[in-house]
Amino acid sequence: MTKVIIDAGHGGSDPGAVYEGRQEKDDTLNLALAVGQILENNGVDVVYTRTEDVYQRPIEKAQIANASDADYFVSIHRNSSPAPNQYSGVETLVYDASGIKMEMAEAINQELEKVGFHNLGVTERPGLVVLHRTKMPAVLVEAGFINTEKDNRLFDERFDELAQAIADGILSAISGSQAEKLYRVQTGAFRNLQYAQDLQYQLERDGFPAFIFREDGLYKVQAGAFRQLANAVWMENVLRRKGYSTYIVS
What we know:
12 strands; Aminopeptidase; alpha/beta; six-stranded mixed beta sheet; four-stranded antiparallel beta sheet; 8 helices
């Protein structure tokens, strides 16, 4: 069963963005619980970082997620701007624009656009703790601007549709990932592209179908992608006999 961490941003002594008495921490908790319930109704195992008004440091949220051994991490927030009604719309943040997290972020934005929000797109934010300290693919959803009247009306008047849209985006990405599940034999992961390319060329000289896959800020060198685990194991054994360090990812 797929497991998803749902994080309600801020909480307790940290209200997040505030506008005319409205606090981000309250909106995020209500929305997180609603999204989580929809996911549970669709057979997803959901774990919450918080279910009440308590303060957690960002690193604590990441630690909760990592300890749960979840498959995905979704953090719910509201955006804000320097002046009221200055900006409007939804955006989703990711560590980098690659992999299943990017697919999930785009799917969530597209579903929220159907509710009536302006789609501001997906933004890379590698400095956010909950995006770079979580071990699983992670996205942070900015569900409209808390100091923009239009976004607040959509948030309040179409709340159920808003929660359903985020859940649908998550479920769409999960479904697509499961449908296309492949077993890949990985031989290295580097922050430096040149190192990855050197290993790729070495593999190709030895006759292996090598390629580079960028994910979570790393250039991952892989040799072969297989629908059957047994075929991936066979390839791994061949590579190891040639002296390569390998492991299978999916």
